[in-house]
Amino acid sequence: MLKEIYQPNPDIVSNAAIRGMGEYWELQSRAKADYEGFWEGYANRKIEWFKPFDTVLDESNPPFYKWFSGGQLNVAHQCVDRHLATKKNKAAIIFEGDNGDYQILTYRRLSYEVNKTANMFKNMFGIKKGDRVVLYMPMIPEAAISMLACAKIGAIHSVVFGGFSAEALRDRIEDAQAKLVVTADGAFRKGKPYMLKPVVDKALEARCECVNAVCVVERNGEEIHWEPGRDYAYNELIKSQSHVCEAEPMESEDPLFLLYTSGSTGKPKGVQHATAGYILWAQMTMEWVFDLKDNDTYWCTADVGWITGHTYIVYGPLAAGATTIMFEGVPTYPDAGRCWRMIEEYQINQFYTAPTAIRLLHKMGADEPAKYDLSSLRVLGTVGEPIDPPAWKWYYEEVGHENCAIVDTWWQTETGGHMVSPLPGATAIKPACATFPLPGIMAEVIDEEGNPTPVGEKGFLCITKPWPSMIRNVWGDEDRYISSYFGDCKKEGKPVYFSGDGAMVDEGGYITITGRTDDVINVSGHRMGTAEVEAAIKKHDGVAAVAVVGKPHEIKGEGIFAYIVLKSDDGVADELETMKEINGIIKQEIGAIALCDDMAFVPDLPKTRSGKIMRRILRSIVKGEAITQDTSTLEDPSIVPTIEEIVNRKV
Ligand code: PRX
Q1: What stretch(es) of the chain map to CATH 3.40.50.980?
Q2: What pLDDT sits at residue 651?
Q3: Directed axis angle between helix 575-589 and helix 530-537, to 10°?
Q4: For a 10 Å CB count at each end of the chain, is N or C smaller?
């Protein structure tokens, strides 16, 4: 049985930054009373400005908010160079490869590598401030180095997760009009090499005229195709570059990076982040939420292709001057003890991962943590999806030995950094609960009109005031930015940021996230838009209509389930074969992360008379829930029991 409230051991977890809830409430009241003053103080203290800012927050053109206008800074300077005076020989990045090989980059070495890479981008590929560079990289130090090198010269990076297909990569290259693609031959996973460069070759076969060059890091040494005049060897070119590179002075609002993410409709959106606000909040949350101390070793298991990898492997830890682990492999190779062994070996103090990984590690080796000395741990983090109480309990008891704080951090690609999270050592923690908004963050659970929802009732999780690390735009599409985030909820008559998540508040003010309210599926903590998956499935010649929904999955949290209507009434001769063909198309169009776990071939979909598909009914059917929705408005209500029967037969 889980208790209602957990208070971590104060001898082990002691947040030096925010001591207790008294201080939390005081900070939050200060932010409410003088919002700009609150942020001004932190911005002045935390950032090494090249030129001070004149305005804290410019709200003159909502929702295009500007933070710290007039100021100049450089993120690579903030993350690397400014630490050289005090941390020259401190480990900045500790890399561990799939096979156990490792590399330590001190702050000085990192600065040296970033400068050489920045000079290479500038001198060899003509990259200047504002140019877009796509990084299609494995989890190797060169991924972080390339991100920082872009920041150093003011180029805008767009990291594309290495699991995305050539088609998906091509769309992202085209949308951003990238000049340069940085990739690797491949890397290693579960003891074997896997490839990335062939995917880049395929992506560049069509369109992508914007790309002048591909810069290839050698990691696994496998043979790759080489396109003369387009492909360049990173490891060769870098040798002749100077290790001195001036940091480009960047305006606070200059874009730092784009990161594509799925929405409920259409193609993925290029979430655009700005320079000053993003790095400020990345650093502050790193310090607060992970109770960071100077001698700590911190490990986040995310991939740099996702926002968690951006903010909490690279930018946050380095801005805070921490030692961050970068891990190429998977948690279950060579066995389910890999993570716990690494925690013992590096004496990790903070471990940050997704509930999917916790469930997997629990299932594969519940007794594994007991075999290792995990006493260095103080803070255990989770992110990306709701964590279920059994997984939480195992994490707390078997990994944290009831001594560590578990920080269930709620945030999104668009928020840039943590929004709602416990503060270790300050917050009394409720299992599987994101608890309270961080100081300075005005997160509220409201209805469409902006009224707080009554205790225990679901509402919309909104951020009712702009915050420094918020999304600034959808790359090249201002209308989509407004309609995606500022269309649904209002407070005091003014549009406010709606996250797409539902949440509930209890009598103590604790916020529990209840999950997406839109058509976004959360597969293993990764966001997948139903529209994207459906568009891929429709490319199969035999498919007349399709609706995709999330289905609860023991490990992944949610899996993808597709209801498919075929063009021919005769049904399918071989369901398995057709499913394979459809999944083959999904793999090609998006990547293996979007594969359907299961499909049902149905005669029709439940549609209203105006043609809208009632997904809620489809979600209920796949969960085996009773249909509570009114089906009388459907074009053909009899389709519901027919679909139910087909799905039940499968289960
Ligand atoms: O639904 C929420 C879920 O992940 C979504 C954001 O996905 P993405 O932009 O890919 O970023 C993931 C990493 C920050 C949210 O809209 N989510 C994130 N954290 C939590 C969560 N759901 C429940 N609890 C969380 N702690």
Answers
A1: 334-408
A2: 64
A3: 120
A4: N
